[in-house]
Design brief:
Distance between the termini: 174 Å
CATH superfamily of the domain at 163-286: Cell division protein FtsQ/DivIB
CATH topology of the domain at 163-286: Rossmann fold
CATH class of the domain at 163-286: Alpha Beta
Order of helices and strands: HHHHEHHEEEEEEHEEEHEE
Helix content: 25-40%
Strand order of the largest sheet: 6-5-4-7-8-9-10-11-12
Structural class: alpha/beta
């Protein structure tokens, strides 16, 4: 065998193999309304997307992103950004111990996650702190921020007490939206309107609008009872009850008319038990008397001897 023949054979064996490409079989490609090259390109893109999806699934299954995040946060903490304390602002009525418990619990969780005595700032879940604080009635809003290098700031926006709500033997403080802020002992009742009955807390705004329309009666109101989930009975300090009709507009019209009559004739404070305004254009009065006692005029004074 000649040297030239050997060289040609060796060169043939040393040829690199062509890389395999993702391609659609020719029989299938002929049936498609596009050319072979475009079909192969689409198939390659689909295959690449499939492999990328598998890679993402494997990363999530192995918790790689979370581990990387924790490692980065721990490294930041070791660089000096550890939580050394926190500041709470905006509390006037709420029990501070409730806020302390939430913040401390989240700091302990972050420290345990970093396997450290202190919590790295980057691992403290400020969203979780805010969500837990909003579960308390007093908290209308909460803002949690990081103040470098080592402080958390918890800014509380409290709800404002608007009335007391008595229901099923319990006395609670509520705001103008009817949200229960806290339970109140009877001997520590603040000087606020008293709402009585199931659902009365949700109608506080309506009652406020009614009383705002009658400024002469508002200071004399002792309590208001929400009757049957439909209307109000107003109880005044002088002992009378004014029964209002259903519907805010009807109730306001009747109450304004009653306030005008009271200003002219002094209806309140005369010993009358109840004024019933439920029938439009009428006022039914209940006088104080024992059951079955007839209503008789007082006896005339005897004439004096001359």
């Amino acid at each position: 065998m000649s040297a030239a023949h050997v060289r040609r054979g060796g060169a043939a064996r040393a040829r690199p193999k062509k890389q395999s490409k993702v391609a659609v079989p020719k029989k299938i490609a002929k049936r498609l309304p596009v050319d072979q090259a475009r079909v192969n390109k689409v198939a390659a893109l689909v295959f690449g997307a499939f492999m990328l999806a598998i890679g993402l699934v494997v990363m999530v299954a192995l918790d790689i992103p979370a581990k990387a995040e924790r490692a980065a946060a721990t490294a930041v903490g070791r660089a000096g950004f550890m939580v050394g304390g926190y500041q709470i602002v905006g509390i006037n009525h709420m029990n501070r111990a409730l806020v302390d418990a939430v913040v401390t619990d989240e700091l302990h969780s972050a420290a345990a996650e970093a396997n450290s005595d202190k919590a790295p700032e980057a691992l403290v879940d400020v969203t979780a702190i805010r969500r837990r604080l909003l579960a308390y009635g007093w908290v209308k809003d909460a803002r949690v921020s990081r103040r470098l290098p080592d402080t958390l700031v918890i800014d509380i926006v409290e709800r404002k007490p608007a009335a007391l709500w008595q229901n099923q033997g319990q006395l609670a403080l509520i705001d103008s939206e009817g949200v229960v802020l806290d339970h109140v002992p009877v001997d520590r009742m603040p000087d606020l309107p008293l709402l009585i009955g199931p659902g009365a807390n949700g109608e506080e705004e309506q009652l406020s609008r009614l009383m705002a329309a009658v400024p002469t009666l508002k200071p004399q109101l002792a309590s208001a009872t929400w009757v049957g989930g439909r209307r109000w009975d107003l109880n005044f300090q002088s002992g009378e009850t004014v029964a209002l009709p259903e519907g805010e507009q009807s109730a306001m019209a009747a109450l304004v008319k009653f306030a005008h009559a009271d200003k002219q004739s002094g209806l309140l404070g005369r010993g009358i038990v109840r004024f019933d305004l439920r029938v439009p254009g009428q006022m039914t009065v209940r006088l104080p008397r024992s059951p079955g006692e007839p209503i008789v005029p007082p006896p005339a004074a005897a004439p004096q001897a001359g």
